[in-house]
Design a protein that fits this description.
about 600 residues; alpha+beta; Heat Shock Protein 90; 14 helices; transferase; HATPase_dom; Bact_2-comp_sensor_kinase; EC 2.7.13.3; cell membrane
Length: about 600
């Protein structure tokens, strides 16, 4: 867990809360969707079952009323007496008989006007014949043979009459009929009471409930089916005859079936039984459509989940920012202090804990500044003293060598040359003193070397030559005095004097951006790679090499003085090839460095 907490506070909060949000919110949304979808499926089927039951009950009530009216018509004493008299050979309808039949028919027609399409009273091949639809007709001839039970029986039955030619008036429609046979003298059907129901009555009941986009209701009987075709879509249609056979074959009064539509859709059929005649009322619908709301809930849930994740993530980011801002600000201030920016202004936070920390750091900074001022003063005094000591050490070192040369000249009787060397030495020391300044222009430092080389040429004659090629813009740049002379001296004593060929020293200087580089090259003895690496390593570490090559006290002294004045990134760097010569590069900044 350290990889989580070993980060900024804001990042830690985001890394902790965002994964939790990304995990728990989708899980919660998924669980909610599963529960909601299951409940919606149950509710959808329950709603369809309720619709089916209500339609069944309403249709059963209306058909029961039709059956009751048939019973009233069948039980009419007037009609029974008329049927009895019609069995006589001399029977003929009187005006009173027509009024009797018409009165009984009109009464039933008036009571069931919204359901009844037509009524027929027919007996003895038309001896008694009266038909009522929108008007009253007498002497109506009708063929009863297509009706089931014609060969015998007197029970009232409900049947679908298909095809339409079985209707009293062949107008191309379908209807349902309730009929009762009237037995003749031989006990066989010799007439009938017929009530035909309006097709529109069934269509309105079947089309009123809203099932689904392609769903519909269907009414099935042993003879045929009727459905609200206008409300159904073609893709959900099934084979009505196959469905009728399945429904009539069911032993349960209600249930659920599954089929495949003509286009291959999965179709669900819920059915109920109408008690009055055992017809089956069914709801037919594609399962995919009834679950559309479930899919809608799924998409809504995905959108809401995504919105919640984004909103909570943004909120977490805002909270993390509010919590982490003072900590981050304080951390940046501490980092700036750690980088050495002690002048950072510590802003005290309104937050209680952060405020205490800010105040503590602010007080601590004040104390550190005070202590650092003391340490800096002491170190600067120490640096000045050390620099002065190092610089003072150069004078005796060079003075010893030069005086030794003058002594030799005097011993040889070269008094004029000794005088010139003393004059050059005095000029050399005048430049060295430089009124006590640590820094002198490069031009003055080069003049200092000329005086030194003048002395050396007097000592060694034509065996030493030199050349100076320093960029004019560098001549006014300040440099720590007595920097180049020990390096030239080192080139002579440890390079040129070890070879038998004439010695040559080339001094060049160039500016590279904010840096100044002066190179002193000689054609002396040089060093192998191992000696060169040890020398550069010793200079970089600020230590004296323990083995050869003997670079001399002057080289180490110059390097330490440059670093004391300019910093550890400046100083000397050597490059050498054994038998060919050595190059030392002095690097110092364009600015004068420390005051």
């Amino acid at each position: 867990m350290r990889w989580i907490f070993n980060r900024p506070l804001k990042s830690t909060i985001m890394r902790l809360f965002i994964p939790m949000i990304l995990v728990f919110v989708p899980i919660t949304g998924t669980v909610s969707y599963i529960l909601a979808s299951q409940q919606l499926k149950i509710n959808a089927e329950t709603s369809l079952n309720d619709t089916l039951s209500q339609t069944r009950d309403f249709m059963n009530d209306r058909l029961t009323a039709v059956l009751a009216e048939m019973a009233v018509l069948d039980g009419s004493t007037e009609l029974r007496s008329l049927f009895y008299r019609a069995n006589r050979s001399d029977f003929s309808m009187t005006p009173q008989d027509y009024l009797t039949v018409g009165r009984n028919i009109d009464k039933v027609y008036a009571n069931l006007y919204s359901i009844i399409d037509s009524i027929l009273v027919y007996y003895r091949n038309g001896a008694i014949s009266m038909y009522r639809r929108d008007s009253l007709h007498t002497d109506f001839s009708y063929d009863m043979s297509p009706y089931p039970g014609y060969s015998g029986g007197n029970t009232a039955q409900m049947r679908w009459l298909i095809p339409a030619s079985n209707r009293l008036e062949n107008d191309g429609g379908n209807t349902a009929s309730l009929y009762k046979w009237i037995a003749g003298g031989d006990g066989k059907p010799d007439g009938m009471l017929l009530l035909q129901l309006k097709e529109q009555f069934f269509l309105e009941m079947l089309s009123t409930p809203k099932i689904s986009a392609s769903g519909y209701m269907l009414l099935a009987s042993p003879d045929g089916t009727v459905s609200a075709k206008a409300a159904s879509a073609g893709d959900a249609r099934v084979d009505d005859e196959a469905l009728r056979s399945m429904l009539m074959a069911q032993t349960e009064a209600s249930g659920k079936l599954e089929m495949t539509s003509r286009t291959g859709m999965r179709i669900v059929v819920l059915y109920e039984t109408i008690a009055i005649n055992n017809w089956r009322l069914a709801v037919v619908y594609p399962q995919a459509e009834i679950y559309e709301k479930v899919n809608y809930i799924k998409y809504v849930n995905l959108v809401v989940t995504a919105a919640v994740v984004i909103a909570v993530a943004l909120l977490a980011r805002v909270l993390a920012k509010l919590i982490a801002r003072p900590v981050t600000r304080l951390t940046r201030q501490v980092n700036s202090i750690e980088e050495g920016h002690l002048d950072v202004q510590i802003i005290e936070s309104d937050n209680y804990e952060i405020g205490i920390l800010s105040k503590g750091i602010k007080d601590m900074m004040e104390r550190i500044k005070h202590l650092l001022s003391q340490v800096e003063y002491e170190q600067e005094q120490k640096r000045i003293s050390e620099f002065a000591a190092l610089q003072a050490q150069i004078h005796p070192h060079f003075l010893y060598n030069t005086l030794y040369s003058i002594k030799q000249l005097c011993e040889l009787g070269e008094t004029a040359e000794a005088s010139r060397m003393i004059s050059a030495l005095s000029h050399y020391f005048r430049i060295s003193i430089s009124r006590g300044d640590e820094l002198i222009p490069v031009e003055t430092e080069l003049e200092h070397i000329r005086q030194y080389l003048t002395i050396q040429q007097m000592r060694y004659g034509d065996s030493i030559r030199y050349e100076m090629d320093v960029a004019p813009e560098m001549l006014s740049v300040p440099i720590v005095k007595l920097t180049l002379q020990p390096l030239v001296e080192n080139a002579i004593y440890h390079g040129i004097k070890k070879v038998r060929r004439p010695g040559f020293i080339h001094i060049s200087g160039r500016m590279e951006g904010e840096l100044c580089r002066i190179r002193i090259e000689d054609n002396g003895f040089g060093m192998d790679q191992r000696q060169l690496d040890r020398l550069n390593l010793a200079l970089a570490a600020g230590e004296e090499p323990q083995e050869e090559p003997p670079v001399g006290f002057g080289v180490r002294n110059v390097h330490r003085r440059l670093q004391l004045h300019y910093g550890s990134s400046f100083g000397l760097a050597y490059d050498s090839t054994e038998g060919q010569g050595t190059t030392v590069t002095v690097t110092f900044p364009l600015s004068g460095g420390k005051e």
